[in-house]
Structures are given as structure tokens and as C-alpha cells.
Amino acid sequence: MNGLMMDRQLLVSSILQHAERQFADTEIVSRETDGSLHRYTYRDAASRSRRLANVLAKLGVTHGSTVGTLAWNNHRHVEAYFAVSGRGAVLHTCNPRLHVEQLVYILNHAEDEVLLFDATFLPLVEAVAPHCPKLRHYVLMSDSHAMPASSALPGLACYETLLEESSDAFVWPEFDERTASTLCYTSGTTGNPKGVLYSHRSTILHSLALSLPDTLSLSAHDCVLPVVPMFHVNAWGIPYAAAINGCKLVLPGPRLDGASLFELMETEGVTCSAGVPTIWLGLAQHMEQSDCRPSTMRRSVVGGSAMPPALIRTFMERFGVEVRHAWGMTETSPLGTQGSLLPKHASLPVDEQLAQRSKQGRAVFGVEICIVDADGNHLPQDGRAMGELMVRGPWIAAAYFKAESPALRDGWFPTGDIATIDPDGFMQITDRAKDVIKSGGEWISSIDLENAVAGHPEVLMAAVIGARHPKWDERPVMLLVRKPGRLLDKDEVLAYLAERVAKWWLPDEVIFLDGLPLGATGKVQKRDLRQQYGGVLLDAAA
Ligand code: AMP
């Protein structure tokens, strides 16, 4: 027997309609490229999104068409989020930090017909355009007075002019909630990027889970600043979740340095934020140097790569900001697990609480996780057994866009991450499968070594790679960036680590660098480091 409840479809447009009805006066503030702040309300965003939906119709965008964006976190990008998906087309957010060839690949693979882009990316769009025959319309997201006098792009249109010429009368269509809403490609360090195609249903369910008290804990009293880019996994779903809950939304545009973020947080009264650890490192450095602390920021969700415990401690103890360590992937929308503590942890000593918080955490409702060995056997959740992390749930990818090979194994998505799960269900990533260091048949966790050294007061950042070794196959080599003006040397690093990790884990070499290579989403590029330093131990042995 079926239930007798209404079969209303979960659609992205319903989020905007709700925000307009319930939170019409709540603000969306965004940093423009010139540094000025643009402010308006959910009422304005809803009206302009309807205008944009009419513009898209005029440009020939129909149900199932794909529309690309190359844009920062700003109000026009929010309008594209709602207008494109809302009218039944697919929003393809492109990462401008991809190599040009990869960008051409994803624009063609997605078959984007229209590209909406910020002025910053005009040269990039001019470079890719000749290689993207399906792109029919180029729309510069700018005011008419800021349009370039000439451009190599055929029929370049001005976003604001198009909106002005359109009506804001538009009725959002209703369709099946399983319809594709957005498309995001993995940043793909090897081979071509792979497309993850979210649905309206997965987007809404994910946004609700993101809002829950142990995750972002959003309400109409919050002011949320997504530092995570809107071109990377839908800014972790925050633009949707903010509108569902009526949060004031603050968008940082292109300015992601510590000083600019801190200023925005203070002037706008930001209460919570989200981003990758490198962003929080920049913010912590700024606050340490200027001897200040946030007055309204209460919590921050950090993920994308491991947040070192020392940095979690700095935020919690020195700056009064609760860090919620989360794990996810493009393929998981991205929220999979989050590390807020359980009541039983409250009585633990502070260091043990920190160790628990540093794990990537427990699965949120809707996501199931398990770990398996190389033969696919399930491993115990004892906090010690290490295996490949598998996930499943209604916002986890079942297949890649237009891919031949299946993405799933026995109904689970294999993440390529190596993890443990403790008896309380807290998952801890030990490594990406390709980053784990295999020394004489034993595994060494590069993340554990990085976390251990990150606690040293003179260390800014560190990455550990497996370098080829004539006897042990691989041994750890540490690439380390010191804080400015510090003289820390190899012996001091090894002595510090010797008190914290097993002796056979100690790196065979410590190399001091001025910086580490960061990829398209702000993560350290270990592949580049391996290419450059993977042979240092062989060179030394020769
Ligand atoms: P992406 O699809 O680019 O967002 O990358 C997803 C990958 O980032 C995951 O498979 C993990 O390897 C890594 N990752 C995400 N969150 C964390 C975290 N909190 N700690 C360690 N690695 C993480």
C-alpha cells in the first residue's frame, strides 16, 4: 500500500521560490572583481533569476540543454545556479583553474551551448572558443559600461543588457525530480576529467543534510560565507542550503586571501564558513600577524584535504572558531562525513577530543560508508583496519556522465581513499590510494606525517611523498615550507617527529621549499611533487 501524501517534486526552483516568500529582505552580498561590494536581497535574486530564465529561453536553451559558467562566487553566479537548473537545463560550472586543454575537453564533452562568464575570464574564453564548436552564445556577466570595445568572441552579449531587456514574469516549470540539474567535472590530475551529473532530487536532499545541526547548522540567524568556489561541487551546496534556511549569504568574489576574508567576515557579521585547509591557513596567518580574532564567526566546515590537528587547535583555542572537519568528493555532492563530536567525547581530555575531531568523521544520514580489502571483503570498524572507503546514498554518483565503464562496485562507489573506521563510526582517511607510501610491504600514512609536523611552531605547510628507494621500494620524503624568517633544519624536524611517529616512519629526506604546488581546487599537488622529487633517494644512493 502506498502512502497518501502529495507527490510534489523536489526541484531547485522551489528553493528560490521559498527564499523569496520567506526571506525576501535577507541580503546576498558579493565582492565584485574591483573590490567593491554589491548587495541585494533574495527578492532581487529571485526576480533577476526569472529574467535570466527568459533570456535563456531567447537564446534557445531548452529542457536538457547545458549552460556553462566560468565565474567567481558572486550574485550573478547565484542567479545562474537557480535560473539554469530551474528552467530544466543543466548548469555546468567550469573550473577556470583547469589547464586550457582540459577546459576545452569539458566544454565539448558537456556540449555546452551557452557560456556565462566573468570579465576576469575573457582572455581564457577567447582562447578556448575556437575549439568549442557547440558553443553558440557567449555572455559576459558584466554591466554594459564595462563591456570591452572589441572581442574575438562572435556575438559577445552583455548579461545586464540581456536582463534589462527581459521580463521577470516567468513560471518555473515542473518536471521529474530525477532530472539533471548541474554538472561538475572532477579536477582530474591524470587522464580527462570525469563528469558528475547531479539531479534536482540529489541536490535538495544534500542541501537539507548540509543544513543539519551537526553539519553546517544553518538557520535564518546565520550569515554564511562559502569560500569554497561555486565552480567546485556547487560550493559544497551552500548557495542552496543558505536559501533554504534564509541565511544571509556573503560571497567573496576573487579575493580569497586571509586579509580580505577577515575583513569581509567582520564587516558582514559572518557566523559560519566553509573551505579547504589552505584557505584557513591563510586566514590564521593573517589573524596571527595582525593580532586579531573574529568577532562573529562561530564555526567552519573544512574539507577537501586533511585539516592538520594543530590548525584545528589554533582555530578553536586561539580564535574561538569551532572547526568541523568534513570529508567528501565531487562524486558525493560532496558531503559524506563530518567530525562533530558525540556526547560521550565531552569527558575526554582535550588532546583526545582534538584527535577525534581531526578524523574525517561520521556519515551523515543518507550516506553509508564501509571499508574493504583488495578482494572486496568488508573490514572491521575497529579504528585500526585500513581499507578502501566505499560509499552509497541518494546523493552519491552512480555513474560518470557519458562514461562507458561502470562507476560502482557491488552497488557501492569506490572512493580511492584509504581509511579506518572506529567503533563509533568515525572515519579517518590515511591516504589517497595513490599517495600511500609502501615501504618494505608496510604502509606509511603521508597524512599522519604531515599532521604530525604541522604542529611544529616554525612549520607553515608540509607534504610527504613516497620516493623510490633501492631497498624498501618507497620511503617517505618530506617537502616543507617554513614560516617566514624561521631557520628550522632537517635534524630539528626529525627530532620533533621522532617523538610523535614510529621510528621507521621518519622521512629519509626533508627538503625545504618556498611553497607547495596547489591544484585547481587549492589542494597540494602530490603528483607534481612526486615527479620532481620521487627520485631523490635514488640520486642520493647512486
Ligand atoms: P574532489 O573530488 O576534488 O573534491 O576530491 C575528493 C578527494 O579529496 C577525496 O577523495 C579525498 O581524497 C580528498 N579529501 C576530501 N576531504 C578530505 C579530508 N577532510 N581529509 C582528507 N582528504 C580529503
From TrEMBL:
Protein keywords: Fatty acid metabolism, Ligase, Lipid metabolism, Plasmid
Record InterPro entries: AMP-bd_C, AMP-bd_C_sf, AMP-binding_CS, AMP-dep_synth/lig_dom, ANL_N_sf
Entry-linked PROSITE patterns: AMP_BINDING
Highest taxon listed in the record's lineage: Bacteria
GO biological process: fatty acid metabolic process
Pfam family for this entry, one: AMP-binding
Ranges of residues in domain AMP-binding enzyme C-terminal: 449-523
AMP-dependent synthetase/ligase domain ranges (all copies): 18-401
GO MF annotation terms: ligase activity
Family, similarity comment: Belongs to the ATP-dependent AMP-binding enzyme family.
UniProt-recorded name of the protein: Long-chain fatty acid--CoA ligase
Organism: Cupriavidus necator
